[in-house]
Amino acid sequence: MSTSKKDKDLVWHPFTHLRSENENICIDRAEGSYYYDEKGTRYIDAISSWWVNLHGHSHPYINSKVAEQLGKFEHTMFSGFTHKPAVDLAERLLKHLPKNQSKIFYSDNGSTAVEVALKMALQYWDNKGESKPLFIAFENAYHGDTFGGMSVGERNVFNNAFEQLLFDVVHVPLPNADNISEIEKQLQDLFKNHSVAGFIFEPLVQGAAGMVMYEAQYLDRLISICNKHKVITIADEVMTGFGRTGKFFASDYLQNKPDIICLSKGLTGGYLPLGVTGCAQFIYDAFVSDDKKKTFFHGHSYTGNPISCTAALASMDLMEEKRTWIGIDRIIKKHELFLSKNASHKAIKSIRQTGTILAIELKTDEHTHYLNNASEKITEHFLKHGILIRPLGNVFYVLPPYCINFGDLDFIYTRIEELLNSK
Ligand SMILES: *Cc1c(COP(=O)(O)O)cnc(C)c1O
Predict the structure, then answer these.
(1) Is ligand 1 within 6 A of the CB of residue 266?
(2) What angle do CA 353, 358, 363 make, to 5 degrees?
């Protein structure tokens, strides 16, 4: 029996409609920007393994660094103990994060990085003797699948079943030239009339919403108001970090730097689970006290796992190499060309780009939505041509590993044009 068939009997997969007739594709090996399934079929990974991979699969350098660490030790508790990979990684991340960042808190994934950020903000106020229970977030936000993450996220099909237990959050529209003054006023009113702990946002690109993009200048204006009212700002850079938007972090496009930054996905180059919540010194200082009750009581068994940290350090080495940025720039320029060529295609409702992310929203008879039925047809079209693209409803995107070559990018664009012209 093939592994794919056995899988259907035994395994429950995430975000997967259980009535779907399709078997899951069983990946046997991967190298660079290619996957190979158990039958030997090759697929170009056009979405960086669910947005996590940066430098390609089975990268020899990251492999060797991880193997080296495996020869030393695999795990230690991270309370009362520390290790060089975790300390070196903190130093390395702080070198690249905005200058206001000064401490690194480790966890396991993007959702926990957000969960930690929310708890940090809430306890920051609690430790100062103030009760500030309200968070502000953007409409259509996605911040992970834990209860805190779901609460600050948009209320939608992802969390309908849990809605009663999600805590109150005010969702404001994404800012643009037309509505920015109105949203500024809305924030000022909220800050005047409510006890607001923090404002959380995905800077520049809302990934799960369908790669929805907005401009840094408007986010800057909202952060500025938060700063004036001492509302903690939290950048969820779980998807946008590590070169995705064309700079090291999306926050690098901002004048006003967030107080807390969440990282995961690309952090380990797409190798191993790891989450980071970075914070400014003033947040940390509120937890430094003779009173033991002011301790931040949060931790995970695998906090700061040394193998994950080693993969992240190796990925940082590669991020600091010139050729990685040449790869990033090349993708950006190729995307730009494709976009300008197809900007007014009749099958397209919207085509947009931020850095290495190119998103296409197809015109369909249905609304733009995660459950839009165009999704299956899009997936099938690309799979048939050996390309792995996973749409968000009628929106699909190319978000490739930085090592992808010209020929493969052109091949993907041609297959996209085929899909557009068939409509
Ligand atoms: C993916 C994602 C998360 C959740 O990360 P997981 O590692 O999947 O838990 C949170 N925020 C954003 C912006 C994301 O894209």
Answers:
(1) no
(2) 95
Q: Once rounded to an integer, what is the mean pLDDT over residues 236-257? A: 98
Q: Top-level CATH class of 3-59+322-421?
A: alpha beta
- Could you tell which of 48, 52, 114, 154 is best to mutate to test the pocket of ligand 1, judged by most ligand atoms within 8 Å of the CB? 114
Task: List pLDDT tens digits, range 192-245.
Answer: 999 999 999 999 999 999 999 999 999 999 999 999 999 999 999 999 999 999
- Indicate the residue type of 67: A
Beta bridge partners of 36: 29, 42
Higher pLDDT residue, 366 or 412? 412
**154 close to ligand 1 (CB < 6 Angstrom):** no
Q: Classify residue 26 by burial, with Cβ atoms within 10 Å: 0-12, 13-18, 19+.
A: middle
pLDDT at 113 (0 to 100): 98
260-315, pLDDT tens digit by residue?
999 999 999 999 999 999 999 999 999 999 999 999 999 999 999 999 999 999 99
In the reported structure, the alpha carbon of residue 132 is separated from the centroid of ligand 1 by a whole-number distance in angstroms of 25
Q: What is the CATH number of domain 64-319?
A: 3.40.640.10
User: Whole-angstrom Cα distance, residue 255 to residue 305?
Assistant: 33
Pocket test for ligand 1, best of 13, 142, 146, 147 (most atoms within 8 A of CB): 142
Q: What is the pLDDT of residue 296?
A: 98
Of all protein residues, the one whose alpha carbon is nearest to atom 8 of ligand 1 is: 110
The whole-model pTM stands at: 0.98
Structure tokens at 321: 């190499």
As a whole number of angstroms, the distance between CA 102 and CA 90 comes to 9
Residues forming CATH 3.90.1150.10 domain(s) in the chain: 3-59+322-421
- In this structure, the residue with its CA closest to atom 7 of ligand 1 is 110
pLDDT of residue 1: 84
Beta carbon of 114 within 6 Å of any ligand 1 atom: yes
The atom number, within ligand 1, closest to the CA of 237 reads 13
Residue 172 confidence (pLDDT) above 90: yes
CA of 382 to the centre of ligand 1 (A): 25
Question: How far apart are the CA of 222 and the centre of ligand 1, in A?
Answer: 23
Pick the atom of ligand 1 nearest to 273's CA.
7
CB-count exposure of residue 131 (10 Å: 0-12, 13-18, 19+) = exposed
Q: Is 368 in the pocket of ligand 1 (CB under 6 A)?
A: no
The answer, yes or no, to whether residue 423 has pLDDT greater than 90, is no
User: What is the structure's pLDDT at 22?
Assistant: 82
- Of 365, 392, 355, 416, nearest to 54 (Cα)? 355
